[in-house]
Structure formats: C-alpha cells, structure tokens
Amino acid sequence: MSTASWIHPDWPAPANVRTLSTTRLGGNSPAPYDSLNLGAHVGDEPALVAANRAVLRAELPDEPCWLNQVHGIHVVDAAERHAGVPEADAAVSRVAGKVCAVMTADCLPVLLCDRAGTVVGAAHAGWRGLVDGVIEATVDKMAVPPSEVLVWLGPAIGPQTFEVGDEVRAAFLAVDPAANEAFRPGVQPGKWFADIYLLARQRLARLGIHAVHGGDTCTVTEKERFFSYRRDRRTGRMASLIWLA
Fold first, then answer.
1. Chain-centre distance of CA 177, in angstroms?
2. What is the CATH classification number for the domain harbouring 129?
3. Ordered strands of the 90-93 beta sheet
4. Maximal CA-CA distance, the chain
5. Is residue 167 part of a domain?
6. CA neighbor of 196 nearest in space, from 147, 230, 245
C-alpha cells in the first residue's frame, strides 16, 4: 500500500471533476529528492522517478500529459497525441480520463474547470508566466465564459518568503497598476515581498473570474510537506493534476 500523502483540493468542483496535488511524502528517492520526486529533469535517478510516477499513476485513470515547462504561456490539449513531451506551461482537456498536470516547487499551480464539468485545465504560473499571461491563455483555451470558471490555487511560495527584485514588481505594475497591492518592501533596498496568490487572484478578477479557492500554503516554510527550489535549490518536484471522470 502506498504511503504517499495527497492533497485533495477543497473547492466546489462538479462531481465529474477529479483533482489531486502531491506532496513530497511517500516516494522512493533519497535526499535531496526525498521522497516522492516526480521531476525527471532535476538530477534524480530515472528509475526512481519512474517508480515515483508509478505510485501516482495508480491514483489516475491514465498517464498524465507531462509538460516540458519553460515559464511561458503555451497551452496544449491533453487529449491530443504529442510527439514526445510537449513544451508548454498549461494543458486543458474535454475528454474524460485525460489528465492535465503541472509540476512545481515554489511556482504556483493553478487548476481550473467550468461549473458544468465540460472542460478542465492546469497551469504552471511562476512569476514570468503569470505576468506574461499563462492564466489568461489557459482560460482562453478552455473556451467557456469566465463567469463559469472555478479555480483552485495549489501549494506555492508564500508572501512572507517570496522576495523579488524591482524588475519583477515593475513587470507586474506595467500590466496592472493594482498589482502594487501584492508587494511590500523587502529586507534589502530594491527588494520586495510578493504575494503570488494575490497576483493570480488579480489576474483572474480582471478576466471576470471570482470563484477562486486555495492559496493558503507556503512551500518554503512547510519543509516536511513540500519541495522548494527557493529554499533548497537542489530538490524534487510535486504535481497538481485535474481530469474529467
């Protein structure tokens, strides 16, 4: 029996929408990837990553549509056939059993569905993708009215630990001056603590999406549960997944 520890998002998704977010617990990898590392690109032994993915696969209806994430805004259809691992930072699906997945270790995983349960999506929203519009691109690909979209914000770096430079704040303010609310002065001059959850909520609100849930964890401070690139640099990756049953 697996000892993996899953997060089942608490949000009012339709009965046919399934969601799952992994923690670092219950896998096969040694430190610094201990233990349920799902990333094949971080230096972990490939056989151990495969064993970890098999633990996750037992909870799913199909192999996830894994992505080669590049902090961009490209969105793929998880139900389409892809040659190799597609280079993208989000996926959507309208086909039952096809699993959308994003991997993170501080960046924000965003899971989306419509109220009717006809389409789901998952987006990898690091600050670059967030400011460039990965959420907007995912919602556009879902092709449903924004007022019908439900969102869950998964485990990410918290506002007390996400310190960024002037250039990051300036990039967000150039798109939306209201983003100023998501920044407070950092420890050093020219540094700011950023609230990535609030920044995502602001972008969603601009689209007309207000049914937003989650966004209450911190991958950096919750070391026992989560991988964190900001904290450890050399570390594993978690996954957030969504599919139609």
1. 25
2. 3.60.140.10
3. 75-77, 90-93, 120-125, 108-114, 149-153, 212-214
4. 51
5. no
6. 230
Interaxial angle between packed helices 134-142 and 196-207, expressed in degrees from 0 to 180 and rounded to the nearest 10: 40
In a domain, 183, yes or no: no
How many domains does one find in the chain?
1
For 33-66, letters b (16+ CB in 10 Å) and e give bbbbbbbbebebeeebbeebbebbeeebeeebbb
Place of tokens 């201990």: 34
Number of C-beta neighbours around residue 169 at 10 A: 20
Measured distance CA(116)–CA(13) in Å, rounded: 9
Q: Examine residue 231 and state whether it is found in any structural domain, yes or no.
A: yes
Residue 1 pLDDT more than 70?
A: no
Tens digits of residue pLDDT in 31-74 = 999 999 999 999 999 999 999 999 999 999 999 999 999 999 99
**236: domain range?**
6-157+218-244
111 burial level (CB within 10 Å; 0-12, 13-18, 19+): buried
User: Whole-prediction pTM value?
Assistant: 0.97
